[in-house]
Amino acid sequence: MQHHIHIVGGGLAGSEAAWQLAEAGFRVRLSEMRGGGDSTPAHATDRLAEMVCSNSFRSDDADHNAVGLLHQEMRALGSLVMRAADRHRVPAGSALAVDREGFAAEVTRAVEQHSNIDVLRERVDVLPDYPAIIATGPLTGSRLAESIAAETGQGALAFFDAIAPIVHRDSINMDIAWMAARWDKGGKDYVNCPLDRPQYEDFVAALIDGEKMPFHDWEKDTPYFEGCIPVEVMAERGPETLRHGPMKPVGLDNPRTGRWPYAVVQLRQDNQLGTLWNMVGFQTKLKHAEQVRIFRTIPGLENAEFARLGGIHRNSFINSPRLLDGELRLKSKPNIRFAGQITGCEGYVESAAVGILAARFVAAELRGETEPPPPAETAIGALLAHITGGAEADTFQPMNVNFGLMPPLPGRWKRADRKKGYTDRARAALAAWLQQLKVSEAA
């Protein structure tokens, strides 16, 4: 098959981009090194779109949450990732969480069986000299990273990303733990393990004193991303930090006491069968034996059996505001576009959304056209604007989608109405943009 475009990387962004282009009638070569003799420190399989950290796409509330709004916009744009997520969702209150194995299998099957896509299990070490999308994610191979650095004239930025442990549901002591969502919102979708003050203080001390995995030389000066801090690092920031973070007890009435516990550990369903549960916010660099010892001091987890223990890896990204134009092209080598987390967007959904945009820009270019970017008033447009110039290049750090990336609402708004104001405006802006594209295509 002769290809119109080469996509490097079969994660969420690369898979989404390949699907979008194939559905538009273009022939795609998708290169993924896993399955071809190479892997990464974080991946466990060779499936496309494997989720290596959490199984959550976060809030699915399109009226009051920016990521929920992004979900809605991606569905409107024919997202394969959102289609697979909706088919394999598991209970998670108002969030969209998925059975990660079913989700990855669905995406892999759709991409591999598409008549316009050739999936090659191969490693790409240099930037191509023909049209390509680089979507290699936070674990870009060292040789390709060197090629990117050589082309851009600057090294890749980097931060740490961490993985939370997964517990077998039948090993949780439900005589101590209970099922509930915070403020009873969305159903009884979380397992809650309560700690009193002495238990919490002992737990924090154990995290601080626990033996951690040593850093490699190339990791030592890499900063953590604030949205994915290891639990022991949070504990080191102060004795109350965890109680105001992942162990926040607010809105969780213990049915055995009728009161909020002093602190709480929540677990979220991780697979469709409900047999595996993810410790929410408990990404860690503790050694595996230390994780088992310390986490079994949590009431309700004293006999916990772990399907996966936590881990940590380096996450690399480019300085997109400085290096990319408004269509995600590398300014110094415009045949190359970037997509996904390597652009400095953070999160599964954001990564796939940028994959959609890269594909749409390529498709328009291959047709000899120019597609206007989505309005900055939309979630997907705000994300694009941020990574391609809206962020300060000198202090650029990965960013989840949020209302702060959007232009301010005009006039004065009550705080309770502001989020709905953003989402209503975004839906109107997206509808107008799609209608503009439809009229242009018809002409």
What does this 3D model show about the protein?
The structure is a single chain. By secondary structure, this protein is an alpha+beta fold. It has two domains: 277 residues, 3-Layer(bba) Sandwich (FAD/NAD(P)-binding domain), CATH 3.50.50.60; 152 residues, Elongation Factor Tu (Ef-tu), domain 3 (Beta Barrel), CATH 2.40.30. Helices cover 33% and strands 16% of the residues. The protein has twelve helices and 17 strands. The strands form four sheets. It has a six-stranded mixed sheet, covered by helices on one side. A six-stranded antiparallel sheet has the order 10-11-12-13-9-14. Helix 3 crosses helix 4. The longest helix has 28 residues. The chain starts with a strand and ends with a helix. The mean pLDDT is 91.
What would CATH call the class of the largest domain? Answer: Alpha Beta
Q: Per the principal axes of the C-alpha atoms, what is the gross shape? A: globular
Helix content: 25-40%
The fold-level CATH name of the largest domain is FAD/NAD(P)-binding domain
Question: Which structural category do the helix and sheet elements fall into?
Answer: alpha+beta
Q: Number of domains in the coordinates?
A: 2
Strand content: 15-25%
Quickly list its features.
six-stranded antiparallel beta sheet; globular; alpha+beta; 17 strands; Elongation Factor Tu (Ef-tu), domain 3; 443 residues; single chain; 12 helices; FAD/NAD(P)-binding domain
Overview in brief:
The protein is α+β, with helices and mostly antiparallel strands and 443 residues long.
